[in-house]
Amino acid sequence: MTILSDSPMAPERKQAKLHATRSKKLDPKKPATPRRKSPAKTVVKKAPAKKIPRKSTGTRKKSTRKKKPQQSGWLRWLMLFGFKISLVVCAVLLVIGIYLDTIVRDRMDGQIWNLPAVVYGRVLTLQPGQPISLQEVRRELDLLQYHKVRNPQRVGEYSSSSTRIEFFRRSFDFETGPENQRHVMLTFDKSGLKTIEQVGTKKPLGYVRLEPKMLGMLGSTTAEQRMFLPREQFPEVLVDALLVTEDRDFYHHDGVSPLAIARALFANIKAGRTVQGGSTLTQQLAKNLFLSRERSLWRKVREAYIAMIIDYRYSKDQVLEAYLNEIYLGQNGAKEVHGFALGARLYFGRPIQELRIDQLAMLVGTVKGPSYYNPWRNPERARQRRDLVLRLMMDNGILSGEQYEQAASRALDVQSKPMIATRQPAYFQQLQRELKQKVGDKFTPGIGLRIFSTLDPLSQQEAENTVAEMIPKLNKKAGVSVETALVAADRQTGEIRAMIGGSRPGYAGFNRALDASRQIGSLVKPAVYLAALRHPERFTLATTIDDKPIALKGSKGTQWKPRNYDRKFRGEVPLYYALAKSLNVPTVNLGMQVGLGAVIDTMEQLGVDRDEVPKLPSILLGAFTLTPFEVTQMFQTITNGGRKSKLTALRAVVDLEGNLLYQSVPKASRAVPEQAAWLTTYGMKNVVSQGTARFLQPTFGWAALAGKTGTTDKARDSWYAGADGREVVTVWIGRDDNKPVRLTGSAGALRLYANYLQRRQPIVLRLDWPSKITTVKYDRQPNGTLSFNCSGTQSLPAWDTDGKLKAQCTGNQPKAWIKEMFTW
């Protein structure tokens, strides 16, 4: 019998089954009745009956029918909207990327920074036979920050004994081209430098040049200062320290490091504050070069985008080179110091290549916060940061444990104060004027030119020390505050070695050396006497000059009655004596005999602008104005045997590629007869040995110095111009309001010059014995005048143009003491 699943009996069976289940639940102890096995049945499958939907409310039925199409529509709309937004975002990012890429390439492919011109001092060339002392060379090396050691092994080190100096000279790009480092031995004797040898080969050298001192920066148009160095010139240990501290995955990421960001985020969450940054070196470079310092999400996004562009466009070494020259490391006054090259000089005063591992580590540690880790204000904090960098270097295998202990045990060893170079504002003003005149449009600020000047750092340093010591003393002596100016120039080449523009040399302001035009007083007298001595047929050093009261009438009926400083008249005096004692009346008489026109012509030939000199008798006593710079030019010509070398502060200008844009070759041209200049210099030597400058003689008599004091009316100006074998120096002391200082030339300016000579030891003033100069003997008369006598007791040199003087005293030769005095 076939039972159909939808038979009428089915509900009853279900009911019985339900009843049995309930009974089982109610009486769990009662065993279940086993189900009776049914006989085999044949089941005939029937097509499924059509299901009758359950009855439900109309509202639910309506919701069910409309929900599926509404959801599907919203999804399609959202997907379409999201796709459109994505396209817009991608398009915007693409446009921004193209824009940022253009900006990055424009800057990175061109000149990245506005580079100031770096100014260097004069180059010291050492040659065998040069009259330079061992002490002077040692001072030069000390000034250049060479380290004195027992046995020089590294660049920038030297050792010294009583007769020898051994040093490892630095490599340097001179104006004539680069020169490599060199290990040199110098040997000295009493006369100066004897020999120069290459250490190791003992090969004799004809010369060796010391690299010049960096004086500062010029022409910067921004608040930033930096010295550009290519990647290969940075020490590798510096790069290793930087990467292990700031970006250990630098060579493995694409400008942005998700791992570094995650690591920094974890560290900051753990510390509860910002203790670590996730920016890569590339991101830091992007921020510094292209973005502001604002803290915002949008800036971070742009920073990351630019970093990826930089990393894609440029090699890792190019990125490193830019970073090493860009990073901010501190302040030099009002200027920001950027780049490790300049930072090394700011903190340690030495080139980056010569710093020790601990010093390099301190620089790397400073990157995180130059102000926070300032070693002068926070030395302990700076030391802890340095030691952290050293420990990271050790942990990463850059340093051994022994190297770490040695480096971490050292003091910070920074300079006494943050300084790149001492300031010479007066000298730099002259340098800028010459750059404008001589280089013109070739001098473009901001392109990193190198300027080689003529400044001698030793002379400048001692001039500044002299002013710092002497001006307070002279203020006390004068009873008022005085100002000063000083110009020192090479006696032969005219190259300016030092310049002081005021009583505070390091401060910019009114440059009295260049712009203070003051009456020169008795400084004019050597020019007057030279104008006479160039006529040997009329005047010699023994010529008698009247020293009697005179009165000269002016064009308006006025009278001028010159007087000597001591208000005395001597009747008659020899010419050389009048110059040595700086007598006014004999000088006026001599000048009137020569003629005002001839005196003015001579002044012009010596380098004075004739428009500055009125054609009046009073000019014979210096009643006209010149600057200390102009006075120095005049005395340079006189003491250089009548050869004029135009004063200059600029030696050469070189661009970044080493191309020479300008070079000054020292030239001397004949301005006045050598014999006349020689005799005038001889007269100026008598000023020192027995005249108004004899204050110098006890200390420096051995140097055979020449000079001239100068005092103006009512002691408003105190002057001194002096020369040794190295330099001619002009010193002025006075007040800006032109009121008296009550200091004569010998009581004021001469004392400052003497202090300078004590610091900057002079060289003996030697001049060649000119042709047709012979020694003539004289007898001294009771009134002090001299009369010619071949057997006389007093000897003076004379310009014997036609040999008549020599013929009168056959066999007469120059006295040995005169020859020794001048090396004639």
From TrEMBL:
Classification via InterPro entries: Beta-lactam/transpept-like, Glyco_trans_51, Glycosyltr_51/Transpeptidase, Lysozyme-like_dom_sf, PBP_1b, PBP_transglycosylase, PCN-bd_Tpept, UB2H
Pfam families: Transgly, Transpeptidase, UB2H
Biological source species: Photobacterium frigidiphilum
Keywords, alphabetical: Antibiotic resistance, Carboxypeptidase, Cell membrane, Cell shape, Cell wall biogenesis/degradation, Glycosyltransferase, Hydrolase, Membrane, Multifunctional enzyme, Peptidoglycan synthesis, Protease, Transferase, Transmembrane, Transmembrane helix
Sequence ranges assigned to domain Penicillin-binding protein transpeptidase in this UniProt record: 485-729
NCBIfam families (alphabetical): PBP_1a_fam, PBP_1b
Keyword Cell membrane included in the entry's annotation: yes
Highest taxon listed in the record's lineage: Bacteria
Catalytic activity, as annotated: Preferential cleavage: (Ac)2-L-Lys-D-Ala-|-D-Ala. Also transpeptidation of peptidyl-alanyl moieties that are N-acyl substituents of D-alanine; [GlcNAc-(1->4)-Mur2Ac(oyl-L-Ala-gamma-D-Glu-L-Lys-D-Ala-D-Ala)](n)-di-trans,octa-cis-undecaprenyl diphosphate + beta-D-GlcNAc-(1->4)-Mur2Ac(oyl-L-Ala-gamma-D-Glu-L-Lys-D-Ala-D-Ala)-di-trans,octa-cis-undecaprenyl diphosphate = [GlcNAc-(1->4)-Mur2Ac(oyl-L-Ala-gamma-D-Glu-L-Lys-D-Ala-D-Ala)](n+1)-di-trans,octa-cis-undecaprenyl diphosphate + di-trans,octa-cis-undecaprenyl diphosphate + H(+)
SUPFAM superfamilies: beta-lactamase/transpeptidase-like, Lysozyme-like
GO molecular function: penicillin binding; peptidoglycan glycosyltransferase activity; serine-type D-Ala-D-Ala carboxypeptidase activity
Pathway given in the UniProt record: Cell wall biogenesis; peptidoglycan biosynthesis; Glycan biosynthesis
Domain Glycosyl transferase family: 221-393
Protein's name in the database: Penicillin-binding protein 1B
UniProt region (Disordered), positions on chain: 1-68
Function: Cell wall formation. Synthesis of cross-linked peptidoglycan from the lipid intermediates. The enzyme has a penicillin-insensitive transglycosylase N-terminal domain (formation of linear glycan strands) and a penicillin-sensitive transpeptidase C-terminal domain (cross-linking of the peptide subunits).
GO biological process: cell wall organization; peptidoglycan biosynthetic process; proteolysis; regulation of cell shape; response to antibiotic
GO CC term, one of those recorded: peptidoglycan-based cell wall
Transmembrane regions: 74-100
Compartment(s) of residence: Cell membrane
Active-site residues, as the UniProt record annotates them: 246 (proton donor), 522 (acyl-ester intermediate)
Gene that specifies this protein: mrcB
